[in-house]
Amino acid sequence: MVETAARLRHHRTSPTKIRQVLRLIVGKDVADAREVLRFCERGPAETVMKLLDSAIANAEHNDNVPEEELFVTRAFADEGPTMKRWRPRARGRGTRIRKRTSHITIVVARYEDVELDRRRQREAADTQAQRASRRRRVAASQRKAEREAAREAEHDHDHDHDEELDEVEADEVEGDEVEGDELEAETDEEAADEAEVETDDAEVETDETEQTEETEETATAETEDAPEAEADDAASEDEADEKPEGSEQPSDPEGATPGTPAASERDQEEKK
Fold it and tell me: What is 216-260 written as a DSSP string?
């Protein structure tokens, strides 16, 4: 198995921090290792990515190994020289500062032939499965789009039908309102006619009542005058019975009728 290495010396990062990133890519093929480093949030990930690209380039250029057949066989970080600095602290003391460095090494190698055949078969099966899955997804998407189109068409048809129903209902409501207005107008006219008829009936009843009252008053007056007229008739009949037949009262030379007030006054004057 051919191996190709790439080294980075005196990198100004602690080996502990770099080892946390290197553990993520050991044993993976170069494509997966790149994918992991691309989304890694650690600080040294960018440096490790550049070193991995250098190792792949060395394998392709120096050993003529294609990138698809490579994987990360080893990756480690050794401690480099530590630079010492001092920082002043309280009471005149000083504190040591250690600036650590690292030597990073990434080794890539070619897969065995058996492993390559197995990976190719798996990739072919995965490819076929992916294609079949893609075909199923496409067919499902097409069916879903057709159902949505049919549903939208049905909804549009229902919406148009609803609009037609709304228009018909609006026309019916307008017709009902017009009929209601006409009925109200007819009702008002009938009420006015009935009021006029009732007014005329009331006036007629008032006139009849007045005529009835006048008739009753006239009848009452005649009833009251009837005894007096009967008494006068009776007196006249008694006088006629007392007067001898064929005798006539002497007429007053002056034309005064005996028994009248004027004749009585004249008699009194003569007696005086």
Answer: HHHHHHHHHHHHHHHHHHHHHHHHHHHSPTT--PPPPTTSPPTTS
Instruction: Say how far apart CA 186 and CA 204 lie, in whole Å.
Output: 27
Q: What pLDDT does residue 34 have?
A: 93
Alpha-helical regions (H) of the chain: 15-22, 30-38, 45-62, 113-242, 261-271
Q: What digits encode the pLDDT tens for the residues 251-264? A: 444 444 555 555 56
For 24, 61, 133, 253, the CA distances from 6, given in Å and listed in that order, are: 17, 13, 40, 191
- Which tens digit of pLDDT belongs to each residue from 234-250? 666 666 665 544 444 44
State both tokens at 223: 């009833």
Higher pLDDT, 34 or 247: 34
Cα 144 off chain centre by: 30
Supply 245's token pair: 């037949």
Token pair 């002043």: residue: 88
- 22: number of Cβ within 10 Å: 21
Whether the CB-CB separation of 265 and 257 falls below 8 Å is answered with: no
What average pLDDT score do residues 178-198 get?
75
Place of tokens 């100004």: 12
111-to-3, 115, 123 alpha-carbon distances in Å: 10, 6, 15
Give residue for tokens 């008694």: 238
Q: Is 40:24 a contact under the CB 8 Å cutoff?
A: yes
Tokens (6 digits) for 32: 């997966």
> Is the pTM higher than 0.70?
no
Q: Give the confidence band of 223 by pLDDT, cuts at 50, 70, 90.
A: low
